Amino acid sequence: MSWSHALKQTAQAGLTIERIRLEPLVAVRGACGVAIVVGLTLWFGSPTLAVSSAFGAFSAGIAIFQKSWRPRPELALAAASLLAVSTFLGYLAAAHIATFVVMLAVWTLLTGMSWAVGPVSGLVSTQMVAVMLVTVTLPTSVLGALEHAALIGVGGVVQAALIVLFPVRPWGVQRDALADALAGVADYARRLRHDPQAPFDPQPLMDARSAAAVTPRAAKRRPSQLRGYRLLAERIRPVLASMADPVVGAPMLGPERDRVRELLAATATVLDAVAHAVRRSRPVRLPPEAMAVLEVPESGPMLNGAARRAALKLMALVNDVVESSDERVEAVTSEGTKDRRHLPRPTVPGLVPVALRALRREARWDSRILRHAVRLTVVAVGGYLLGAVLPFGHGYWAPLTSVMVLRPDFGQTFSRGVARFFGTLAGVLIGGLVVTLAHPDPYVSATLAVVCAAFMFMLLRTGFIVASLCVSAYVVFLLGIAGAEVGQTVQARVALTLLGGLMAMASYVVFPAWETPLLRDRLADWLTAGGRYAIAVFDAHARPAERRPRQVREALLDQRAARSEYEQLEGRARREPVRHRGLGPRAAQAAQTALSTAGRVTMLLEAHLPDRDAAPSPEAGEFAAALRTAVPKAVEAVRERRPLDWTAVQESLEHWQERAGERQGVAVRSAELLVEALDDLAEALAGGARQQRALQDPTRGGDPTH
């Protein structure tokens, strides 16, 4: 992607307002929280106290809009508490510039490392540093600093109280995640009607699983509609693929294919009805026409073999969906019920060891998180020192802009970062002109700040250029309440904002953290997880009586997570202006297709797992043993850029085919497809190695500018 095209796409996305992503009631509630805090503090206290308390309510409001599955009051309180602590420490250190620089360096380093915990932690921590740079410029004493910190915490308490008193769609994010997963499987069923090998995006199912993890206390209040459907959707998906596949399911042409298309359409209709009911918190209304299709017909086209078994299993699963839909939406688990059937989510104190493990895992020099933390620290400290030396006054605008622009990866920094920079610049310019020309009094400035906060909350999930404009204007109007910027011209603020943005961009050029060289390692991780998944499924066919209930499921989740991590990395690497250094774009795409096919083949076989009393299959056990030996060697070869060798796996398959003769079942055919996918992977990586050699020596052919 060229620079001009990337920036054009960023500008269009930043200025486009998607109405479906707007949450006006939540935005109004957040703005009301800011208005209440600012109004009361301005009426009973002082303008500087009003500014501090408003920043607390504002930061808490931003936190509740982040994509997190935790209750919104907890996010609001956590954001305000962190801001209160950082502001108090900043006030204590602000008296001496050397002390404050050390404190700023430590705080920004921890902020950068917080991205290891998750994007929500990273974004909220970044907001803490940005706001701290502003609030510590307000004059006060040590006791006054404590008062400022307390009022910042009060701002978070007010936002949390409003969420509790005026709930908007309780469990709404969990409902949306589950509904998206059900709708994704329904869409998959419809696409299978026309393309039996249609790809499936597992991300909605992964999000639904993350949303389903709750604490024991939250599990007691979770609506019954949010339990059960996700697991049914997970089980329906492989059955749909198996029934539609022309190799292990129904033939591509004929009456059996017509029957499969009818079943797929009916299943999609039922899942869509359930998704709509879950999203709207309403009882499920199932169309009788679709339910009639999902019954064993007395006459007409009939399915045979593996397709018939898959169809019967599908009917049983859809029947489970129907039985689950009989529960009323309002039914919840009573306080006295000991319901342990939920995915465990750690409590807030339980997050401490999780965060420490994440920080320890990223504390290595080749980690993009650590490099981001170092980059952020140097830019913030350098911007603060430059702002203090320059004769503009209020030099915090430079580090504030840098902190808001920088992100851990190149794509976000140089695409959305540029957009945030221009939005910040426009907000500073517009807000500064209004304050300079109109000279509003504190109450008018407070009103303008609340209006900007309302628009920012409204546009936080869409139109991020306009949202950045509103954030900057909010800061300008809020500081205008206390008269903190009377002596600073609009030109000075714009110049410092330009300086901060240029420093952020230059820091990534000077000290990059390219992710392109990591593609092979992530591909090897995906191959490892995919191999374990395939081994688990073939082991289940080899020894049905010894199969553990969670064996295949855990392997599938690991494979899905490894695939998601690779695809995210590949998407970020695609936007980096560096050579591939080991795995070119074509080879990466071909390898991704091969591993996706291998995962799909394993999923098809998972739909036909035998019962515990079924006869064991020694040939499946031999094939699994061959995979268990070959996969680690192949993983090592991927990392070291050597050719992959699947000879042992192919020999095991040939032996299985000879023993099976003409009566080759689903397991044998799935093994054939899996070996073909592994061969495609070997060929893709061999082509990437040849391309790399050509890049190093252009006389041997190839495109050196690839």
UniProtKB/TrEMBL annotation:
<feature type="transmembrane region" description="Helical">
    <location>
        <begin position="465"/>
        <end position="482"/>
    </location>
</feature>
<dbReference type="GO" id="GO:0016020">
    <property type="term" value="C:membrane"/>
</dbReference>
<keyword id="KW-0472">Membrane</keyword>
<feature type="domain" description="Integral membrane bound transporter">
    <location>
        <begin position="384"/>
        <end position="505"/>
    </location>
</feature>
<keyword id="KW-0812">Transmembrane</keyword>
<dbReference type="InterPro" id="IPR052430">
    <property type="entry name" value="IVT-Associated"/>
</dbReference>
<feature type="region of interest" description="Disordered">
    <location>
        <begin position="687"/>
        <end position="706"/>
    </location>
</feature>
<dbReference type="Pfam" id="PF13515">
    <property type="entry name" value="FUSC_2"/>
</dbReference>
<feature type="transmembrane region" description="Helical">
    <location>
        <begin position="124"/>
        <end position="143"/>
    </location>
</feature>
<feature type="transmembrane region" description="Helical">
    <location>
        <begin position="494"/>
        <end position="514"/>
    </location>
</feature>
<dbReference type="InterPro" id="IPR049453">
    <property type="entry name" value="Memb_transporter_dom"/>
</dbReference>
<feature type="transmembrane region" description="Helical">
    <location>
        <begin position="26"/>
        <end position="44"/>
    </location>
</feature>
<feature type="transmembrane region" description="Helical">
    <location>
        <begin position="417"/>
        <end position="435"/>
    </location>
</feature>
<feature type="transmembrane region" description="Helical">
    <location>
        <begin position="149"/>
        <end position="168"/>
    </location>
</feature>
<keyword id="KW-1133">Transmembrane helix</keyword>
<protein>
    <recommendedName>
        <fullName>Integral membrane bound transporter domain-containing protein</fullName>
    </recommendedName>
</protein>
<feature type="transmembrane region" description="Helical">
    <location>
        <begin position="373"/>
        <end position="397"/>
    </location>
</feature>
<feature type="transmembrane region" description="Helical">
    <location>
        <begin position="442"/>
        <end position="459"/>
    </location>
</feature>
